[in-house]
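Give me structure tokens for this 433-residue protein.
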Amino acid sequence: MTVQGKPRKAAIAAWIGSALEYYDFFIYGTAAALVFSKIFFPSSSPATGTLLALATFGVGYLARPVGAFVLGHVGDKFGRKKVLVTTLVMMGASTFLVGCLPTYDQVGLLAPIMLVVLRLLQGFSVSGEQAGANSMTLEHAPEQRRAYYTSFTLNGTQAGQIIATAIFLPIAALPEEDLLSWGWRVPFWLSIAVAVVGLVIRRTLEETPAFEQEVATDTVAKMPLAVLFREQWRDVLRVVVAAVIASVSTIFTVHGLSYAVNTMGLERGPMLWVGVLANVAAVITIPLWGRLSDRVGRKPIFVGGSLGCAALMFAYLWSISIGSYALIFVTGIVMFGIVHSATSGVWPSFYGEMFTTRVRLSGMAIGTQIGFAIAGFAPTVATAVAGTGQESWLGVSLITAVLCLVNVAAVATAKETYKVPTEQLGRKAPVTA
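Here you go.
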């Protein structure tokens, strides 16, 4: 394969793998919002059942930091490819088994316990997915196009959400009895095909030149985590705080859907279509934001996207509160499909460029997954603080805005890296191109 072809292959493999893996991850979120409160927590009140179902979605994020430490170590010591194959197999198996679980009516408390265990396995798996794919594409990418190529990892993530939500559209249209008995299981069973296709693709990947150079010169860190926290702990902390921007995604995807359907009584179908169309827009805009970032820098794009999300979440949730489908579609697509995509198009390169090759996968995995763990519980916290009533949209919007402003503060303290040569990334005194 030509030198020019390797970045493209790495980007395509990252896109497909992320799309397949996040299909698994987000069908769980959709099912948690629409179904799980009725089949795993039926003895609770409707409000409590919804809160418990959303909490199982958040539980998956608890396993992410643990998985990040383990898979980060593996990726920086043994290679990026090993992590990408491992995460795909684990995610496919755990997701398939969710579809096989008995309900609360069949086995009682054992049902939600098994659900939580499998959700933890999902979270452990996904913790190394994005960091591994981002490291792979960044280290294969040409110097002045790193953001563009790495943006395809997040582009694939959005595609996975499209597939997950689109598959739930006909499922959600089933009669209630069929939906709760067998319909919800079908998207989970399809993960077997997901795992097989993804495994075939990722086994053909080549290791990155940067990691191969470390192996050739015997400079691979024996204890990557020790090196990371000794030399770059500030960057890890910065990524943790910046990664809280993922709260916009979880609140839009999970809380917004639950609030619309379970609180406001809006139709499931149109609300699922909001997610589909917003993610279609994101698939288009994410690489465009990445390309623009390669020209003007990471920080302006990132900060602008965060501030825009802080303002637009008010408009989106308010639209749901008044039941205006037209406004829901417009504000949802603009906020998530366009404005939030500015952050998604930039952070895969921006976070990775903070670290040296020796600790890049560990630094990205640990930093993002701790931040994502906070974001994963954002829907639960927002629901618990703001309540489940019709006026809860304002409290949830305020919480989201605060999290976005925290993200802006973290990004503002980081160095601009878009002109730093790849071999100089993460060094204390980088030499600009």
